[in-house]
Amino acid sequence: MIPLFEGEGYADKHSDSFAEGEGAQWAVAFTEDGHPVRESYVNLITTTAGGTHDSGLRDGLFQAVKGFIELHALLPKGVKLMPEDVFARASYVLSAKVLDPQFQGQIKERLNSRDAVRLVSSFVRPALELWLNQHVDYGKKLAELAIKAAQTRQRAGQKVEKRKGSGVAVLPGKLTDCESRDIADNEVFLVEGDSAGGSAKMGRDKETQAVLPLRGKVLNTWEVERDRLFANTEIHDISVAIGVDPHGPADNADLSGLRYGKICILSDADVDGSHIQVLLLTLFFRHFPRLIDAGHVYVARPPLFRVDAPARGKKPAAKMYALDEGELNVILDKLRKDGVSEGKWTISRFKGLGEMSAEQLWETTLNPDTRRLLPVQLGRFDFVQTAAEMTKLMGKGEAAARRELMELHGDAVEIDI
Question: pLDDT confidence of 408, banded at 50, 70, 90?
Fold first, then answer.
């Protein structure tokens, strides 16, 4: 708790700016919550509507705290401090002494004397600057309160709403929707890239499968405030398409507008594709956790290799698909056992989903009978443990932790580059 800041200051006969005896006495308390209590007086007259002497107190407090924050380099990048950020959590009693005061209103509820701002500020600012530098720990607590207020104010000013037309959210233009409205059967594929999206649109089951192409890599949303999510077009489109607003793990999220029973992440089977998977999983875990809890989020697993095998006795020529090199080796071993000579088969490696024809994409990734679709679940970790691991992996200030993870487990990872 920050102690009471109290003091007084009055002009003497040597003052060039103010009449002798003019000045103020004050007591200010900074609190983290609750409604601020404020009283001010001029020449012992109550000023219920405040006035220029209150503005002087406000200016003095702000200038002193701002100077302290700059001196100790406490202000985070991108945060701009305003007087109200310091004043917002201040409760105070202020008694000003002003020669020939000018009031507003018949009952003198507000002081209008212009010089009163400079008068009060000139005594409050140096007194608080001295106090802050004598009590650095309390100064840092006060700075933290002001910075927190500034961040809250900036977030409120930057809040981005879901784009609407005619009172309802407008579905994104690049969404190719399905015909069915039964979420028990409906599924949407979040597809990496327009070219892959084109193949998916042509190869899908139009009755139950929708396709939403994503351009480039989705924003890392682990440390993005919920009110700022819709500033990103891709995330806005995902939220509108699935019919669910961002929410937290403790929120009573409304899933009544959910448009698809399965939300499937479909990206290339390479390192970049894995990165996009992680970014989308981060988005759903951080801002749509109820979808994971309810079992609506899936990861599609497209193949990395295709093997064109020749006819083997009664077995006709066939196309076989492998997710990775491990599965590829299993397929080749089986061909050898079937008596196929080395080099009689052809191995093709997909550089991306965009290289697949609509027929191949249907056969390997979209067809419910032949595809591999992994449900996303928390597994052995609870939400708190998983959040801690995700912070380590996705947090901006966690580079050291990620390096330690790579040093410990790097040898166990097989990466296809």
Answer: confident
- Of the pLDDT bands very low, low, confident and very high (cuts 50, 70, 90), residue 169 is low
Tell me the residue range of the domain where 122 lies: 5-158
Would you state the structure tokens that stand for residue 344, as one six-digit string?
A: 């009689």
Q: What is the DSSP letter of 161?
A: P
CB atoms within 10 A of CB 318: 13
E-only strand ranges, 170-271: 187-192, 209-214, 262-266
Best CA proximity match to 310, nearest among 283, 288, 285, 342 = 342
Residue 139 has what pLDDT?
94
Q: What letter does residue 206 receive in the DSSP assignment? A: T
Shared-domain flag, residues 297 and 310:
no
Task: Give the whole-angstrom CA distance, residue 22 versus residue 374.
Answer: 76
Nearest to 417 by CA among 264, 275, 301: 275
Q: Which residue is listed with tokens 């994503």?
A: 214
CB atoms within 10 A of CB 306: 19
Q: How many residues does the chain have?
A: 417
pTM (predicted TM-score)? 0.63
Report the relative pairing of strands 373-375 and 297-300 from DSSP bridges: antiparallel
Q: How far apart are CA 38 and CA 139, in angstroms?
A: 22
Cα–Cα distance between 308 and 344 in angstroms, integer? 9
Ordered DSSP codes for 344-407: SSEEEE-S-GGGS-HHHHIIIII-TTT--EEEP--TTS-HHHHHHHHHHHH-TT-HHHHHHHHH
Residues 136 and 274 in one domain: no
Count CB atoms within 10 A of the CB of residue 52: 24
One domain, residues 14 and 142: yes
Q: How far apart are CA 309 and CA 317, in angstroms?
A: 6
d(CA 28, CA 46): 17
Determine contact, residues 175/195, Cβ cutoff 8 Å: no
Closest CA to 196 of 394, 364, 5, 66: 364
Residue 193 DSSP code:
S
Question: What whole-number distance in Å separates Cα of residue 227 and Cα of residue 139?
Answer: 30
Into how many domains does the chain fold?
A: 3
Percentage of the chain modeled with pLDDT above 90 = 57
Within a domain: 118: yes
Describe the chain by its helix, strand, coil percentages, rounded to 5: 40, 20, 40
List active site positions: 192, 268, 270, 272
Residue 124 lies in a domain: yes
